[in-house]
Amino acid sequence: MTKARKVKSTLHSVKIPANNITHTSSESPKTPKTPKTPADEGIDFFESAFTQGEEPIRVYELQLDPDGGPNKDRSYMRLPPAYKPYVLRVSIEAGTPAAKNGVFKTNFPLDGGRFSRDHFPERKLPTDFSKPIRVDLPISHAGAFAYWVEYDGDEPGTRVKGREGYFNIDPVLRTRARTPIISDASISSSGGAVLSDNVNLSLDGVSILTIVSKWMGSTDAWRDHLAEASERGYNMLHWTPLQERGESDSPYSIRNQLIYEPSMFTGGKADLGEDGGKAKLEGLLRTAREEYGLLSLTDVVLNHTANDSPWLLDHPEAGYSPANAPHLTPALELDTAIVEFSGSLTSRGLPTTVHSQQDIDTLISEFQEHAKSLNMWQYYVFNVKNERQSVKDAVSANNIIPWTTKDVAQKNVVQLADIIRTSGVINGYRALEKRFGTSVPGPVAAGFVKAAFVDVEDNADALADAWSRVVDVLNVPLYEEWEEDTKVAMEQIKGRLKYIRLEENGPKLGPITKDLPLVELYFTRLRGKAESDPQTYSLANNGWIWKADPLVNFAQPPSKAYLRREVIVWDDCVKLRYGDGPDSNPWLWEYMTKYVTSLAETFDGFRIDNCHSTPLNVGVYMLDAARVVNPNLYVCAELFTGSEEMDTLFVSRLGINSLIREAGNAWDPKEFSRLLYRHGLGKPIGSMDTACVTSKEELPPPTGKGPTRPCIVIPHNGSAPHALFFDLTHDNESYLDKRSAEDALSTGALVTFSHSAIGSVKGFDDMYPKLLNLVAERRQYEVTRLGENSGIARAKRILNSLHTEMALHGFEEGHVHQENDYIVMHRVQPTTQRGYILIAHTAFTKGSKDRGFISPIKLRRTKAKFVYGAHIKFSSYENNKDPNLLRGLPGKLVEMREVVAPQGLDNEGPFAEIIVPEYFPPGSIMLFETQLRGIDPDLDALCSSGADDVFGSLNLVDLNVVLHRAEGEERDLTAGDIGTYIVPGLGNLVYCGLEGWMHPLRHIMRYNDLGHALCAHLREGTWAMDFVAARLFKQSDTFPNLVGPAKWFQERFDRIKKSVPNFLRPKYFAIVISEAYKASRRSVVEQCSDFVSTGHSFTQDLALTAVQMLGLVQSASLDPGKPTPSLAAGLPHFATGWARCWGRDVFISLRGLFLTTGNFLDAKRHILAFASTLKHGLIPNLLDSLRNPRYNSRDSPWWMLQNIQDYVNMAPEGLSILSEPVKRRFPQDDTWVPWDDPRAYAYSSTLAEVIQEILQRHADGIHFREHNAGPNLDMQMKDGGFNIDIQVDWTTGLIFGGNEFNCGTWMDKMGESVKAGTKGKPGTPRDGAPVEITGLLKSTVRWLDQLSEAGEFPFRGVDAKIDGKRRLVTYKEWSNLLQASFEECYYVPLDPAEDPKYNVNPSLINRRGIYKDVFGSGPGREWSDYQFRPNFPIAMTVAPELFEEKHALHALKLADQVLGGPLGMKTLDPADLQYRPYYHNSTDGDDAAIAKGLNYHNGPEWGWPLGYFLRAYLYFDTRVGVGNGDPSQTLHRLFKILLKPRHHIQHDPWAGLPELTNKDGEYCPDSCKTQAWSNSTILDFLQTVHEMNTT
């Protein structure tokens, strides 16, 4: 869109002329009341009382990107006519950059009143970070509108304007109703008759006929033409310009824009009246509309005027001349040379008539010689003599300007010339405005050569000679440019001469004279003026350039199109010069505005002539003015921009309702079928979007006043420009020339089956053999109506009428099939499943009568009845030579006998079969009426009903089965019988439940992608339907609540299988699955907390992962004696068995997945289950259904204690959990016993006692060797790794533990590679006091102190042996000890001068201003204390009081800069020598750093630390950072970080956030695709934000 930016400044400066409306009344004069505008009426509607039974309001939702702009596909929106007001909803995700003090701006009149292009009402965007942001626009009238979002930039005080978007609202077109053309599958003889009542005509029902009034005779005869067009089924006439024509007699060469062509009227000029014939013409158009059902559309010609327009003499500034565009001077000189040369051919002994190529070569050769005498090179180059003299004069007068811009001394003349070219000192460089107009001022040149030629004698002649040498070099490329331009100009003249005087398809003009020169002239010389002042009164003619940039005006510099003769010129039209706006050329703008508004008052629509070369600012201004007087103006145009992107630019800016497309541009049947599919398909048969993607909601009043109304929300995907599909336009060759005459019927028929506006030209139906010359043709149309010599008119009557009827009655779905020379189109009404199918045998080549081949057409479960068939037979292809009448070829429309479509039956069910008859020559067509048989009329309602009742009653574990279940989970619970579904061509779905289906269906439903592999599979059979219900029935013994959903699915799928043909199966499958999914999702959300239920989609997507992870499997449980639901660490790797439920993972995840979502019961179950396993003062990392738990994680108990604290604070009556009895899995002496041993569960503790035991055991020191230590427990670990040692350092309060052979924190990768020598060596031992454990410890003792002080915890502290004595250490004392020691132990000062204050070894410091990852790493690993990792924000979040606030914020900013990744945080500083960001667990090798994935935590980017970073940053930045005065500044920064996670969860098939990624968010194959803690910690952050908003 780079080129589009050129016009933006002019677009917003456009102003609309006021519409002066006069009101008269017989009553006493009163203060005039301003009439309500359509925008006012729309506001009134939404503020008026709601009427019971009122239809739901349509809400079209446009989702903007995070930067506030639409994505490329949605940059242009086409919206339907506002028969009844509706809403355009613009949605932005909460917290995205565009929401930062965001303001939505649009020139749609949101506050009522009239539209103004440069008036932009505003709506301030809500600042709630927890709820979706919406702006609802009440839409009530047609027009073209722009919008954007403006918001705060990253730099203070800056504002960002988001990318602009555009929405165009279709006009309301009202036309006469007509009687049906088909009745009971038969053509009605009275069909298509015009009735007295009106109907709303959608753009897809428009059927246009182009007519040229000069061939219609006078207006007295027009009724016959109107009747003919109406009888042939057209409902709109495209009138080529009806204004007074210029001397060429072309309708597009308008002499007087405000007067209609006098010759149209019987009395000529005498009939025009004071208004120039406007009233008379409006009367005729009223007759056309009311009696014949014909709306009117006319061309608007903005680019040019006739070469004899009288007003040009008074206003030559309206055109381009050398006087106002001096660069045209040499072009005019060359043009004049052509005139003079043409008049001298006889005297030169040259041919005046062209008979051969030799004549052309002779003429061009002589003209080249003539052109040389013009010395045109003088317009390009420096005058060396003058340049020399100017330097000499400057030096002699000591008038020298020193050269200071660049060192030029000792450079050669080529280098010096290059410097001069780019220095900006050359006057007239390449401007071509006058001979020798290129120069450098003498004083400047003198200063330059004096600085350059330091060795040259310092006198005037020497320096002047030096400058001459530089000028000679400067002139070299200028001479080359002149030679190239001359060469191109001569080639263009030669090509044009050949076309207009020799080629068969050209006009073959006669003798060459001065009045009829060699080629068309590029300039109009205004008679009586140009003779004396050619510079002012020689005006450039208009034309077009092949593949030109439509945003570049070829009459303005730097274009040399006129000089190079590149314009294919219309020598009867002067190009108009508008400039940048009305101030540039006031008279022209005012005059043309009167012309345009007058037309808008008279006609229903415009065709913008030559739209692609109409200056965009002119088009915008004029159409805005037109819509003031006719808001429902229909605008179409033909564009030759060369790109769809540029087409959309013009369509969106100008508000073009339809782009003209032409069937004749197809070169074969395949290309034609592509055009039909692209422009005329509508939606494919079986489309799903309406049924599946829309949602019912309650609509708050858009203005804030008025009642809430029911609405249907329809996501908008953006739009392609709407098509006006012509079989043939009035300026293209006939089908006799292009293809074959016979193809007119087949192509014309196929065009009528397009779900778009359609068009034709008078003469196409009549079979005119040749393109008619708008200028030279003088004959009149023959009116044949539907009788003899009417060509294919009788067929077009049926098809045009049917086209309109199908649009009126919603036949919006279609199918296009091409096979060999055949094209089949089927149009269907999706509600009734009634349709029409057209079989057309195209005739792209002449002569053949062969039937060709097409397979029998099988229509499943459908009855097809023949309606009509025909081909056209010609007795001759000779052009009619009637001197007075325009007539078609002598052809006869041969109508076919009925073709029966028999019913058949095969293994897929019944079908109708259409077989093309043996005689069906090219050009033939057949039309059948179709009706789907046996389809249940209540099926749509059934499929979309009852879901809320059935799925709304399920609990979250039931919903886990319905929505999710990975392969391993499903097979675990079904004894291996059921796994994820395999779709041929797509592979395994990731889930067995609805989310598995919804991932492909979201795209299929939104974009109606029926070619998707899943749709193909559904058409082939019903296996997918069987699977959905069967898997629920299979598991109903375990989950009895699933019987209801299983029956719900089965009932609907059984009905579908019974009555729906295979091609509709994808649609109904999608309806059922999507309804079930929406109901299930609602059920989850409704069972969640207010934070989730009122939150935005990102919050709810994350909340769904809590259901994704919480499920029941046989092999993992919270109870060793029976299966119970448990939390999976991640999917798919941690789905079942011992690997499913991990202590650390559960308690990192529990707050977010359970507490923030309101699932307190499952939170409690997990807390109590793990508490029951307490042994050695630890809880297990691997739970293994409590049967074989493993105690090798030092951090797990602290995560549990943090979660108990969170539960107490967040759950209703949360404190009561401390009194809950906990049956203990192991005896008090920590003896290992099997779970079913009598000593297991032999005693109980309260949860408070369990908490105290954890603290006390740590205070005493923990020292044990893991049960069953050795290869049977862990085949990778060295013997020393099984020894667990943990103790408290009572000088600091810190807990230390671990050794070089084990890894007791979450960074727990054990080396496995024998080849690399890393087997049994942890990748990250983190022995010592890891920073997050210290933070969790501080959080716990602070909390317990608070509880104890309040009398809510039965223990005051722990007994500890300190300095050889046992004594009570209160929790307050322990907390204070940690507080006093933390910064000293962990902080690495930014300033080395402060090192003595802290416990640091400067020689080991790699990065300053950070917090150590560990304090007190083991011998030989002291350096690992100083590794910069993302663990310190955990401590900041749970115990922020430990940190000096400014130190903390600096470290967090550093983490953002150094460790931040798209979906998580780098686990190690990239500057660290150990940093290895690519994780491949299965890869072995010699590199010890990465072999067998040892770098698991040494660089790859993990998801879960991100949530803690966000919470920590929010805390400290709002206290001592930019968020201190305005927390929203911090929130916007942090929400920007969440853009990638938000996008990922919305689009990834697993619908969750991954465990980790490789460098910069790159996909890691060995990662879990969705991980509990990755999702959880983001929920934690969002819930924190929600609390901030609510408090």
Detailed description of the structure:
The strands form 19 sheets. The protein has an eight-stranded parallel β-barrel, surrounded by four helices. It has a seven-stranded mixed beta sheet with strand order 26-32-33-34-41-36-38, with helices on one face. Strands 2, 4, 5, 7, 8 and 9 form a six-stranded mixed beta sheet that branches. Residues 1-33 have low confidence and may be disordered. The chain has 44 helices and 61 strands. The protein starts with 7 loop residues before the first helix and ends with a helix. α10 (413-421) packs across α12 and α41 runs antiparallel to α42. Among the domains are: 11-18 and 34-173 and 690-715, no CATH class; 174-297 and 657-689 and 720-932, Alpha-Beta Barrel (TIM Barrel); 935-1087; 1383-1590, no CATH class. The longest helix has 42 residues, at 460-501. The chain is an alpha+beta fold and 1591 residues long.
Our Rg estimate from Cα atoms comes to: 41 Å
How many strand units?
61
Task: Indicate the CATH architecture of one domain.
Answer: Alpha-Beta Barrel
Principal-axis shape: globular
What is the mean predicted local confidence, pLDDT? 94
Termini Cα gap: 45 Å
| Count of separate DSSP helical elements | 44
Q: State the helical fraction.
A: 25-40%
CATH class of one domain: Alpha Beta
The residue ranges in which pLDDT falls below 50 over 5 or more consecutive positions are 1-33
Spatial strand arrangement across the major sheet: 14-15-18-23-24-25-29-30
User: What percent of residues are in strands?
Assistant: 15-25%
Major sheet attributes: 8 strands, parallel, barrel
Organism: Somion occarium
InterPro entries: 6-hairpin_glycosidase_sf, AGL/Gdb1, AGL_central, AGL_euk_N, AGL_glucanoTrfase, GDE_C, GH
Protein name: Glycoside hydrolase family 13 protein
